[in-house]
Amino acid sequence: MNLQGILAIYRFEMARTFRTPAQSIVSPVISTVLYFVVFGAAIGGRIEQVDGVSYGAFIVPGLIMLSVLTQSISNASFGIYFPKFIGTIYELLSAPISYYEIVIGYVGAAATKSLMIGVIILATAGLFVPLEIAHPIWMITFLVLTCVSFSLLGFIIGIISNNFEQLQLVPLLVITPLVFLGGSFYSVSMLPPAWQTVTFFNPVLYLISGFRWSFYEVSDVDVGLSLLAISVFLVICMTVTWWIFKTGYKIKS
Amino acid sequence: MTTIVDVADLTKTYGSGHQALKSVSLAIQTGEILALLGPNGAGKTTLISIICGIVTPTSGRVRVAGHDIQSNFRAARAVVGLVPQEITLEPFETVQNTVRFSRGLFGKPNDPVLIEKVLRSLSLWDKRKAQIKELSGGMKRRVLIAKALSHEPRVLFLDEPTAGVDVELRKDMWAVVEGLRAQGVTIILTTHYIEEAEAIADRVGIISKGEILLVEDKATLMARMGRKEMIIELQSPIDKVPEALGAYALTRASAGEALTYTYDTQKGRTGITRLLSDISAAGLVVRDVQTRQNSLEEIFVDLVKDDT
Question: Which residues of B touch A (CB under 8 A)?
């Protein structure tokens, strides 16, 4: 196992984050604060409690998930797309490092970054609303699983993309709508029955629901189902990654 | 001499159907400098890319230091360094970090002393904290070399290292190559420039249209270059070379209207005077005489042309 190689990729990627702190860390924090100002203070004042939780506190898990999902995908996809774009991927391919080690390096760094952002947003939220975390271990488990699986998804997107536009396509057109419609800002029970049924086809709902359960013990779907959903998603991403490297798809001719 | 890179029956057909390599076999000796000469699209870069693991071969086998590049890729790649043809570097990284990254990627612990030595040898030490994008093209090429040397390869591939590089940097590169040879590093370089092959290579391989046409010691090639041909045009054509001239190994050319005599300019006596007097003694009338020299370029052009 080429531990030095994994560490080299990990450090290199982390260094990129700290070289651009405004883009990597400050901007997600600012957008979260804005969400709190708009939803928490302006609208939240007019909404009673949701499922026994004050509206401001209710949206915290959804806000964290929103940032963690988009950040995981954009970090990991950019991380692998950039070497492909500028050609430095030759070095990865010619080094004595296996594919899964490359994945650990890039996905590990991307997941660390989004985990950091998740924690920073959680801390920022704590300034606005009183936080209670009923199941801290489950909370961390959900967070880490989400960071890792969506970083893997980002890695896959980065490899498949042929240009910068495609790189942005999935986060903008797929992930953001799914998160907004996945109960980040509301409980599914607040929707008309027909829309409730539609919402249950949204995979992100299961993530947010499970994550919110770890905070307030309220959920739209059973927490076991949430855990199953994220695990299945992780396995799917791992399988696709494995296939990509096995065939050299879009990397090796 | 032991073989460090052993290429056997290597073929590569790209997805587009383009056959870049047609059954290439090549044995590269430990410690030698091999120059691969060939026109654009000859398959030089494909060959190097397969050996380094960037391109998957269609068929055939490559061993580096005894390790198969596919079944034992870690051991094989660990000894190989590659300096690619295109300048591909992370523009926002510093020189020092990108070189350190390369060493780590190859599984070696950070070694500041060695990195300093490498950077100094390439006149990059003063620029170690500069971002890549601030460097000139020549400097960037040095960084590519520094990255490859940072993990102490035993075999170094230089893909067109001096393409588009000024004379001074080219001389510097040759000096670096010479220094590496002294350390026992095996070097394979591809080039368009015949002078480059003449200046630094031990052996020269000529590749065209995916086939290796020739691999020879430079000394042998030089000897071939030292040979000259004298073409003696005759007044009237002859059916065969007269027996009296049998000792000169003449060949008939231009349907018997000329004789070709090959001689070595390096020798003390070329035998030209004697040949000319023997020709007139044999009753042949000479109309014109011309001589021409084989250069490596000519050998190269001939080989490549024959191939088309």
Answer: 14-15, 52-56, 73-78, 80, 82, 84, 86, 88-93, 97, 100-109, 147
Percent of all residues in chain B with a pLDDT value above 90, rounded to a whole number = 48
Search chain B and give the residue with CA nearest A82.
B90
Strands (E), chain A: none
> B11-26: per-residue pLDDT in tens?
999 988 899 999 999 9
What tokens does A211 get? 């994550």
In single-letter form, the type of residue at position B48 comes to I
Kindly write down the DSSP assignment for every residue of B294-308, as one continuous string.
--HHHHHHHHHHHH-
B263, B227 contact by CB (below 8 A): yes
Contact list in B for residue A12 (CB cut-off 8 A) is 93, 97, 101
| Residue pair B10/B24 in contact by the 8 Å Cβ criterion | yes
Whole-angstrom distance, CA of residue A181 vs CA of residue A34:
19
Residue B182 has pLDDT above 70, yes or no: yes
Alpha-carbon gap, residue B303 to B221, rounded angstroms: 13
∠ CA(A107), CA(A133), CA(A208), 5° rounding? 50
Among residues B179, B181, B176, B168, the alpha carbon closest in space to that of B146 is found at B176
- Residue A66: phi, psi to the nearest 5? -55, -50
Hey, are the CB atoms on A86 and B54 less than 8 Å from each other?
A: no
**A-chain residues near B103 (CB < 8 A):** 8
Query: What is the predicted pLDDT for the residue at B69?
Result: 93
A105 CB near a chain B CB, below 8 Å? no
- Sign of the alpha-carbon torsion through B45, B51, B52, B55: positive
Q: What angle do CA A146, A151, A152 make, to 5 degrees?
A: 105
Domain ranges (residues) in chain A? 3-247
ipTM: 0.85
* CB-nearest partner of A96 from B89, B97, B106: B106
Amino acid B292: pLDDT: 79
Which domains can be identified in chain B, with CATH numbers? 3-222 (3.40.50.300), 227-293 (3.30.70.1560)
Contact: B107, A96; criterion CB under 8 Å:
yes
Q: What confidence tens digit (pLDDT) does each residue in A3-40 have?
A: 999 999 999 999 888 887 887 778 878 888 888 888 77
Pairing relationship of beta strands B211-217 and B203-208 according to DSSP bridges: antiparallel
Burial class (CB in 10 A: 0-12, 13-18, 19+), A189: exposed
Binding-face residues of A in 2-21 toward B, CB within 8 A: 2-5, 7-9, 11-12, 15-16, 19
Question: Residue range A101-108: average pLDDT?
Answer: 94
**Cα–Cα dist A226/A214, whole Å:** 11
Give A97 to chain B, closest Cα distance, Å: 7
